[in-house]
Amino acid sequence: MASTETTPVRDAGNGNGSVEAGLDALETAATGRPTFRQTFVSKILPPIIALGVVLAVWFLLYPIVDDPTKLPSPGAVGSAFKEAWLKGDLLGYIWTSVSRGLLGFFFALLIGTPLGLLVARVKFIRAAIGPILSGLQSLPSVAWVPPAVIWLGLNNSMMYAVILLGAVPSIANGLVSGVDQVPPLFLRAGRTMGATGLKGIWHVTLPAALPGYVAGLKQGWAFSWRSLMAAEIIASFPDLGVGLGQLLENARTASDMAMVFEAILLILFVGIAIDLLIFSPLERWVLRSRGLLVKG
Amino acid sequence: MATTTTLAKADESVEYAARLDHVSKSFATPGGQQLVLDDISIDVAPGEFVTLLGASGCGKSTLLNLVAGLDRPTGGSITTEGRPALMFQEHALFPWLTAGKNIELALKLRGVPKPERRDKAEELLELVRLKGAYGKRVHELSGGMRQRVALARSLAQQSNLLLMDEPFAALDAITRDVLHDEITRIWAETGISVLFVTHNVREAVRLAQRVILLSSRPGRIAREWTVDIPQPRRIEDAPVAELSVEITDVLRGEIRRHGQH
Does B110 contact A8 at a Cβ distance shorter than 8 Å? Predict the structure, then answer.
């Protein structure tokens, strides 16, 4: 008869600690950071190649179109940049628009956040203005320029008004969907710990809603920037200072296609740069710290 | 019928950690009022480990919600001393905080001053054998580790009653087995009272001093067993298996009744 030699560990205290440590080690996956080479090949190289392809197509197309008033040469656009840079105007154009855009976005943040919180938490307000708020997102903000000019005149307040009308719905809606997606389990867990009322909002609801809120901010910035460009192009007025929208409008009136391209590229690059420098890192940080970002 | 959820005064010496007195609960449904819990009376003594056992539809989780104060009973009364801590099947840890900060949040909400929180959190992590996990994010922990952090967070509330809603149901068998030993050890070390809900008969017998079987639809107390097997037990122990067979037979009888109309 085979006898199994077992020494049952009757002490629930010491014997289990090592088993547990072993289990913990087995179940915790080791994660390493990707090397620079991997990051370069998977993240940095593809956009560089795409940019190269666009430039190549442009070079090829230029002699075929053969009409600098329709398609300027890459060289001409380059010298338009260079000229603006040498005159010291380039940074001025950018700063005029960026400062307007960011300040407007900041106001939109101050209004959109409490508004979103109210819509998310107060049933009556949600029923009353919830649908309008999401509907407003599909209204092109350029539609607000004519009334804003009539109400406020050709000045900076009109620009800010247009930015607000474009960005506030996005920010508020982002927060509303963030709050809606907070798992009820978190709220229950919070309540059993005594996080009720304002404490519950501060310690549980808001941090849990952060991913949706940040997505709303990102979209809000895109809308701010678009609205501002629409406002600058339509309401171009010398006293307002030359931003990127006015630069584009001035180029059009001067029939200077190289400058038109310069302005469009600047609008594009600045919009992307702000997103890459501020909003994307913010979003990545929020998602990564919660394990919501898949590495790779 | 009186509908009260009273909190006993802290200085009053109580002979129970929770007293459920003829508790009933019904929910409004399209087909009228549906009775979920019917005439439940349970006293949990200080330091006692009680498991509530039942098939689906017995209202176990509803009952825990009532005791936790997340919902109000339709009839009867529930008395607890202070706010009980509640642990769920899912860990319910906040992913925007580290393991340590999750515990510190519970301490903060309890009013523990800031300078003391860090040490207390480290102490609790050590109690659940997770020394060094303070700065870990929730997603960096395994399922068993998460439940242990959740346990530490519940203990941080320093309540004298811990409610556990199938806390190990989502874990693999090996981890669950280890956590059974852990909760037994921590229960003995802290002297906390535990009301533990499960549908796993062996788990109920492995852990509890008293097993209460609930019938289903509506949930009523069907029977009660006192478990005299000395701790520490193992789930494989013969006396545990024997009692489990007995309880399972009664449980099956309860379930069978529902197929007979």
Answer: no
Architecture of domain A69-289: Orthogonal Bundle (1.10)
Q: Read off the amino acid at residue A177.
A: S
Chain B contact present for A210, CB below 8 A: yes
CA-CA distance, A236 to A155, in Å (whole number)? 10
**Encoded amino acid at B3, one letter:** T
What span, in angstroms and rounded, lies between the C-alpha atoms of B58 and B50? 16
Size of the A and B interface in Cβ pairs below 8 Å: 98
Give the model's pLDDT for residue A296.
40
Are the Cβ atoms of B70 and A188 closer than 8 angstroms?
yes
Q: What is the ipTM of this complex?
A: 0.83
Nearest by CB to residue A290, choosing from B68, B95, B232, is B95
**B173-190 helix and A14-27 helix, angle to the nearest 10 degrees:** 140
Answer yes or no: do A199 and B109 touch at CB < 8 A: yes
Backbone angles phi, psi at B76, to 5 degrees: 80, -175
Q: What is the mean pLDDT of chain A?
A: 85
User: Identity (one letter) of the amino acid at B189?
Assistant: E
Q: Is the pLDDT of residue A6 over 90?
A: no
Name which of A8, A10, A207 is nearest B96 (Cβ-Cβ): A207
C-alpha distances in angstroms, A199 versus A187, A195, A207, B105, B114? 11, 5, 12, 11, 17
Successive 10-residue mean pLDDT values, chain B, 261 residues: 46 72 87 85 90 82 88 88 88 91 92 90 89 88 89 90 90 87 89 91 90 86 86 84 87 80 59
Q: Mutating which of B64, B67, B80, B94 best tests the A interface, going by the most A Cβ atoms within 10 A? A: B94
Q: What is the pLDDT of residues B126-175, one digit of tens each?
A: 888 888 889 888 888 888 889 989 999 999 998 889 999 988 888 888 88
The answer to whether B232 contacts A12, with C-beta atoms less than 8 Å apart, is yes
Q: Are B211 and B51 in contact (CB under 8 A)?
A: yes
Q: What are phi and psi of B176, to 5 degrees?
A: -60, -45
Q: Distance between CA atoms of B127 and B110, rounded to whole angstroms?
A: 19
Total count of residues recorded for chain A: 296
Give the position of tokens 């969907």: A177
* Helix, strand, coil % over all residues of chain A, rounded to 5: 80, 0, 20
CB contact under 8 A, B178 and A16: yes
Q: Are B40 and B63 within 8 A, CB to CB?
A: yes
A233–B contact, CB cutoff 8 A: no
Domain spans, chain A? 69-289
Dist CA A93 CA B60 (whole Å) = 67
Spatial distance between the Cα atoms of B126 and B145, rounded to a whole number of angstroms: 12
Nearest CA in chain A to B106: A193
Cα distance between residue A254 and residue A99, in whole Å = 26
